[in-house]
Amino acid sequence: MKKTHFSIVINAPVEKVWNTMLDDATYRIWTSAFHEGSYYKGDWSEGSKILFLGPNDDGTEGGMVSRIAVNRLHEFVSIEHQGIINKGVEDTTSDEAKKWAPAFENYTFAKHDDGTELFIDVDVLPEYEEMMTGIWPKALEKLKEISEK
Predict the structure, then answer these.
(1) Using one digit for the tens of pLDDT, what is the confidence trace for 83-114?
(2) Domain range enclosing 75
(3) pTM (2 decimals)?
(4) Which of 82, 53, 56 lies closest to 69 in space, CA to CA?
(5) CATH classification of the domain holding 35
(6) Which residues contact 26 (CB under 8 A, 6 or more apart)?
(7) CA neighbours within 13 Å on the CB side: how many for 20?
């Protein structure tokens, strides 16, 4: 697993960036860069289970089974991805799920002269690194756009 790093400065207060990133309606907007129709079920409370979902080409639901490992309000969120969801079925034990889980996705929010600097650290399998390095900047630009409105 390889750690990838991304960051962006957003001209908005930390609290607004936090809320825009994690609230259901705006989460759906910025994560559409990864997969149109992305959403989550669950909440961002530390220790809670959260499912990251989206439609598959065949109309079934796919995504990731995850847990909020750490949540420090307006400072830091760590997501531990524990498995996959295939055709609506959670899988944390197959070889396919174990090949990349656990993987962490960490968001760090820091005050900046121009508002907020957001740092993203993501565990990525080598075969997805190029794809992720292309998509994350687009997703962060969407987040910036809607946070600055």
Answers:
(1) 999 888 999 999 989 988 999 999 999 999 98
(2) 2-147
(3) 0.94
(4) 82
(5) 3.30.530.20
(6) 19, 20, 146
(7) 24
Give me the helix-helix angle, 126-147 and 14-22, nearest 10°: 120
Residue 33 exposure: Cα atoms within 13 Å on the Cβ side: 19
**E strands within the chain?**
2-10, 39-42, 49-55, 61-72, 76-86, 89-91, 103-112, 115-124
DSSP state of 31: G
φ, ψ (nearest 5 deg) of residue 95: -60, -40
CA–CA distance, 130 with 99 (Å, rounded to integer): 18
Burial of 17 (0-12, 13-18, 19+ CB in 10 A): buried
State how many domains the chain has. 1
Q: Are residues 105 and 3 in contact, defined by beta-carbon separation less than 8 angstroms?
A: no
Tell the residue number behind the tokens 């109309």, with chain if given. Answer: 59
59-91 pLDDT, tens per residue?
889 999 999 999 999 999 999 999 999 888 999
